[in-house]
Design goal:
The complex is a heterodimer.
Chain A: E1 3-7, E2 10-14, E3 19-26, E4 32-38, E5 44-50, E6 56-58, E7 64-68, E8 73-78, E9 87-94, E10 103-104, E11 108-113
Parallel strand pairs in A: 2-11
Antiparallel strand pairs in A: 1-3, 3-8, 4-5, 4-9, 6-7, 7-8, 9-10, 9-11
Chain B: E1 5-7, E2 10-13, E3 19-24, E4 31-38, E5 42-50, E6 53-57, E7 64-68, E8 74-78, E9 87-94, E10 104-105, E11 109-113
Parallel strand pairs in B: 2-11
Antiparallel strand pairs in B: 1-3, 3-8, 4-5, 4-9, 5-6, 7-8, 9-10, 9-11
Classes of the chains: A mainly beta, B mainly beta.
Chain lengths: 114, 114
Amino acid sequence: AQSVTQLGSHVSVSEGALVLLRCNYSSSVPPYLFWYVQYPNQGLQLLLKYTSAATLVKGINGFEAEFKKSETSFHLTKPSAHMSDAAEYFCAVSENSGNTPLVFGKGTRLSVIA
Amino acid sequence: KAGVTQTPRYLIKTRGQQVTLSCSPISGHRSVSWYQQTPGQGLQFLFEYFSETQRNKGNFPGRFSGRQFSNSRSEMNVSTLELGDSALYLCASSAAPGAYNEQFFGPGTRLTVL
């Protein structure tokens, strides 16, 4: 069965520092992978998705993620954190070319310190 | 274009009661998915509807049910409420079914069961 593990329920970075949010997946078939962001009192918003094309995926707001099959990872990065990046981030996996329902990780809360 | 609308935004019920939550998708979207978000279990998929048909169902008891109308609006119902049903219920719409297609989330309905 597919699953997602997000290492670190809370990550804190200084403004301008590198953001690295970790995601490892388990899937018996080639997965589709997603990162979503949730701001307080709002729903989720798609940041980026991997669909078996380029392994380095660029998303909105300067975020990107790299699919590494050998490490079963899909870590999210951003070179320079902004205060507005403070939110909860969810990694998710889907199988069967994205036709199975999303399975989410537990989420990582990102805090940005001025 | 208006986003996904969920009503009501907040709801307080007592154990044993039933509740109906409503979701209006983005205009032109025909697929609606529902998720339950709790601090302990995180985000869990409930069901997905497309063209009034349930396409996928998550691992929830039969007390959780849903439907979709011809105008793509969707409702979910929870009968015989339990304390553990307290959660944020999120609805997401997409132009077509499957996680591959970008899902746009509403702000959620926060259900509290006393």
